[in-house]
């Protein structure tokens, strides 16, 4: 649906550009601009995006100079330029250009299709960023302008376009809500989409006739909406009629026919009409394979549908066969979306869009393993573990994309290679899109010579990408490991584990989840009989009673909400119980969580059923509980593949200086520390973390929002000074207040320090896909710039040069944000690892300042006295010492002694 909106919008701009430039009274300047604009489109359609945009920018400059800044032609050219910016993911530039176009074109008070086009394109900018209210307002404004056009076929087409844009918007909203498990809200959005399509059908029937290709597209979209509403009885007639129309007007091998066959087959599977569904999918597979090649992403869609059919009909062997083929096809073409070339249009990379293919393959392999012998089960588990890693591959996509764009704009051999790769991948996507469009035309309209030329160019581009990828892997392996990490199989991961180490990788699925456990010489895997939604609810229940401010308030109100030890034991039994025999005797345990499990502090799982939890108010049962921490030194990894990179970094020579710290940053010009009578000198850092995107306005960072929502952390100054003194650091290596800034961090020779300490707030990526990156909040300058806006984002972190044993993020909630499943850390952690750190220490919830200082100081002291024990073991001992301190009852409560997790390399290497 997103692609159709882009195409419609671009065609609208082009059409009205011609109208403006072909007026009888057109001047020579207008005629010259018309020719130059035509050249822009030719360049863009040929894949020369940068040259096309450069010429479009020059056209706007020329129009302003020769015709005036407020001339209608200037407005139209700004609309063209804004649309090109949008199509390249340059949303801020697109928004500025299109807003300027709207201001100019609004001067014409009569019927104004040019203004409608600009409003539609601006709405598309917001839609691409999933800013639905803003997009809806603009689409409705455009629709009101279409209503003012003279009655006739042209008005019907344009009004239909406007309504269809709203249908696209409602469909996108519905899909997102459905993916989030909010099915009732999704159904309401699908109903809105269906209502819009119902309005378009009679308009386009009048304009094109009732049996036109455009009508078949509307029927296809409506049928798919009914299918997603779980109304197959209504979906089936629409899709059958759409298929009949397409078979009537298109050649038998047209890929558009395959699209409808696939959609209809999915409905028939839901109705258990398996033989007809299989015939349709087999036909669609033949069509797409012949037209696009056996490993094209569109072919993967058919392969996945066949796998789902065989899964539903109970043919396990065939289900595995086809899900394996589907995932292989996605992986084959995932390279066109990696290395920082993903287009930021809300959809993410190819692997992210097809993550359910990999989940299905894992589920199919699990079914196949149930009746297999031990050797076969291990082989199936090995394949499942690799597929599971692909399923969670894209968690840091936004940060990786931004990093790729930043690096490609630089100089040097790597920047040149990345640019070459990006240019080839962008041109491949353009050619692929054009090929599909050319093949989707009726046979009589197809340019067979042009189609063959496009196929040859696609093959050549794939070879160029392959060559660039191989050279990058050879010359710059660290960058490739960050930007497009390859999953590790069981044997590869086992080689990286020591004799006293175990690794556990967990993957939440739709109806069931999966756990993979490895040691140096052992492997086990199992199905967890709980899906992602129920698992998220269990994690939420587990975390209840950990936030110190909420616990204190509940006790004061006489209704204490305390951490539930029984819940912690039940979750241990569910998640790690199936692999307990393999891992329980290992000293070090590395956990690779995903989904809602990123919010789970695994060291607080309880390995034995608590004896007496009737009265927890004196905190005694907490001191005696069988915490997982008692058995293992626990670390968290952002991915299985990260272990390989971390083991390489761990072998580097240590840095010369002990410590550099940044704390107590200033978020306001005249900061005032708010009083806190409840906490006194040990005030908790109880700030509510908001979505990253909340802090941005169209012109950049919204300084007032950020400053208002981030209280100053004055106590962190003493925290940093104390730790620095204990580590023998110089006062010159401590940066507080306004000096705790992005500029200071970026200028510091960080590679000289073994410990890099950030005592500040952490911000997590918001719900808007494609724009937010996790970040650390530093001092906000009076005049923010791109280089220093107060937020050290993950893509900026990745460009730092570190050689650190530790990066300490003594910040608020850096681990998982304000909700389970935010996966906030993965992008930030991977960026720090890429920059050169061996491990991070991060917090799971709002941290009591005194507790944070005690834990960090104790950890460094233990490690200084016992350098051979490793970082995770040092944290473990510091926590157990705090827990065992009977001087205060509250010391036994986990909110105080257990807020931190070690991310990355925890063992001694």
Please specify the SSE layout and strand pairing.
Blueprint: H1 2-21, H2 28-45, H3 49-66, H4 72-87, H5 91-105, H6 113-128, H7 132-147, H8 153-179, H9 183-208, H10 213-228, H11 232-249, H12 255-270, H13 274-292, H14 297-313, H15 316-334, H16 350-353, H17 355-369, H18 374-391, H19 397-408, H20 413-439, H21 448-475, H22 477-483, H23 490-496, E1 501-507, E2 513-519, E3 523-528, H24 532-543, H25 548-556, H26 565-575, H27 580-583, E4 588-592, H28 620-624, H29 628-631, E5 633-636, H30 642-649, E6 657-665, E7 696-697, E8 700-701, H31 703-709, H32 715-726, E9 734-737, H33 742-747, E10 753-759, E11 762-763, E12 775-777, E13 791-793, H34 794-797, E14 806-809, H35 824-835, E15 839-843, H36 849-865, H37 871-884, H38 894-897, E16 900-904
Parallel strand pairs: 1-4, 4-5, 5-16, 6-9, 6-10, 10-14, 14-15
Antiparallel strand pairs: 1-2, 2-3, 7-8, 11-12, 12-13, 15-16
Helix pairs in contact: 1-4, 1-6, 1-8, 2-3, 3-4, 4-5, 4-6, 5-6, 6-7, 7-8, 8-9, 9-10, 10-11, 10-12, 11-12, 12-13, 12-14, 13-14, 14-15, 15-17, 17-18, 20-21, 21-22, 32-36, 36-37
């Amino acid at each position: 649906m997103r692609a159709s909106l882009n195409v419609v919008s671009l065609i609208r701009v082009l059409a009205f550009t011609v109208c403006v430039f072909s007026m009888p009274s057109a001047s020579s300047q207008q005629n010259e601009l018309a020719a130059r604009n035509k050249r822009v489109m030719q360049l863009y359609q040929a894949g020369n995006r940068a040259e096309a945009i450069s010429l479009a920018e020059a056209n706007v400059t020329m129009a302003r100079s020769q015709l005036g800044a407020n001339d209608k032609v200037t407005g139209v050219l700004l609309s063209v330029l804004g649309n090109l910016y949008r199509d390249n993911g340059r949303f801020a530039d697109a928004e500025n250009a299109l807003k300027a176009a709207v201001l100019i074109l609004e001067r014409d008070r009569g019927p104004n299709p040019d203004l409608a086009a600009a409003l539609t394109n601006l709405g598309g900018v917001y839609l691409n960023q999933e800013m639905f209210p803003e997009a809806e307002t603009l689409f409705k404004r455009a629709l009101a302008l279409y209503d003012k056009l003279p009655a006739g076929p042209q008005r019907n087409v344009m009004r239909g376009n406007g309504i269809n844009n709203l249908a696209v918007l409602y469909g996108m909203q519905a899909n997102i809500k459905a993916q989030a498990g909010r099915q009732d809200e999704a159904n309401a959005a699908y109903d809105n989409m269906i209502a819009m399509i119902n309005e378009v059908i009679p308009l386009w029937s009048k304009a094109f006739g009732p049996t036109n290709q455009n009508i078949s597209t509307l029927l296809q979209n409506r049928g798919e909406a009914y299918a997603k509403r779980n109304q197959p009885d209504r979906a089936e007639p629409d899709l059958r009629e759409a298929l009949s129309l397409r078979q009537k007007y298109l050649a038998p091998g047209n890929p558009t026919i395959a699209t409808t066959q696939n959609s209809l087959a999915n409905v028939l599977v839901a109705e258990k009409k398996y033989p007809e569904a299989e015939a349709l999918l087999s036909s669609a597979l033949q069509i797409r394979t012949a037209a696009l090649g056996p490993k094209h992403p569109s072919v993967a869609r058919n392969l996945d549908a066949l796998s789902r059919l065989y899964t539903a009909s109970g043919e396990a062997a065939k289900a595995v066969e086809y899900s394996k083929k589907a995932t292989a096809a996605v992986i084959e073409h995932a390279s066109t979306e990696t290395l920082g070339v993903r287009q930021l249009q809300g959809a993410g990379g190819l692997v992210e869009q097809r993550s359910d293919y990999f989940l299905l393959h894992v589920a199919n392999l699990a079914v196949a393993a149930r009746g297999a012998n031990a050797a076969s089960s291990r082989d199936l588990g090995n394949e499942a573990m690799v597929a599971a890693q692909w399923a969670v591959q894209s968690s840091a996509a936004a940060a990786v994309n931004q990093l790729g764009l930043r690096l490609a704009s630089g100089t040097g051999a790597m920047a040149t290679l990345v640019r070459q790769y990006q240019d080839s991948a962008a041109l491949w996507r353009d050619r692929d899109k054009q090929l599909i469009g050319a093949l989707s035309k009726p046979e009589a309209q197809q340019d067979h010579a042009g189609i063959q030329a496009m196929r040859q160019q696609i093959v050549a581009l794939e070879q160029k990408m392959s060559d660039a990828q191989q050279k990058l892997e050879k010359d710059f392996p660290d960058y490739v490991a960050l930007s497009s990490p390859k999953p590790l199989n069981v044997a590869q991961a086992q080689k990286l584990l020591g004799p006293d180490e175990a690794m556990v990788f967990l993957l939440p699925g739709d109806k069931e989840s999966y756990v993979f456990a490895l040691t140096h010489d052992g492997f086990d895997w199992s199905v967890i009989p709980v899906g992602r939604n129920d698992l998220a609810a269990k994690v939420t229940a587990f975390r209840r009673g950990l936030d110190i401010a909420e616990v204190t308030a509940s006790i004061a109100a006489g209704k204490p909400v305390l951490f539930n030890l029984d819940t912690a034991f039940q979750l241990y039994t569910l998640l790690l119980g199936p692999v307990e025999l393999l891992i329980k005797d290992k000293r070090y345990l590395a956990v690779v969580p995903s989904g809602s499990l990123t919010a789970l502090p695994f060291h607080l799982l309880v390995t034995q059923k608590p004896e007496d939890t009737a009265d927890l108010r004196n905190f005694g049962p907490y001191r005696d509980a069988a915490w997982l921490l008692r058995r293992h030194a626990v670390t968290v990894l952002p991915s299985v593949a990260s272990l390989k990179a971390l083991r390489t970094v761990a072998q580097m020579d240590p840095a010369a200086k002990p410590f550099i710290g940044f704390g107590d940053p200033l978020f306001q010009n005249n900061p005032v520390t708010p009083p806190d009578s409840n906490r006194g000198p040990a005030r908790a850092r109880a700030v509510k973390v908001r979505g990253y995107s909340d802090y941005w306005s169209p012109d950049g960072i919204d300084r007032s929002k950020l400053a208002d929502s981030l209280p100053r952390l004055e106590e962190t100054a003493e925290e940093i000074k104390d730790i620095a003194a204990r580590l023998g650091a110089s006062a010159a290596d401590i940066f507080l207040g306004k000096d705790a800034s992005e500029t200071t961090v970026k200028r510091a020779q960080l590679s000289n320090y073994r410990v890099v300490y950030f005592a500040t707030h952490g911000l997590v990526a918001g719900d808007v896909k494609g724009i937010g990156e996790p970040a650390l909040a530093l001092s906000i300058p009076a005049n923010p710039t791109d280089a220093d806006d107060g937020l050290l984002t993950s893509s900026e972190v990745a460009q730092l040069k570190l050689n650190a044993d530790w990066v300490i993020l003594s910040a608020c909630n850096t681990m998982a944000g304000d909700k389970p499943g935010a996966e906030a850390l993965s992008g930030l952690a991977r960026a720090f690892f890429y920059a050169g750190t061996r491990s991070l220490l991060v917090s799971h919830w709002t941290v009591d300042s005194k507790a944070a200082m005690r834990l960090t100081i104790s950890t460094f002291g233990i490690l200084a006295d016992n350098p051979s024990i490793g970082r995770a073991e040092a944290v473990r001992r510091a926590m157990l010492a705090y827990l065992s301190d009977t001087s205060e009852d509250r010391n036994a409560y986990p909110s105080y002694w257990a807020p931190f997790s070690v991310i990355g390399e925890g063992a001694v290497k």
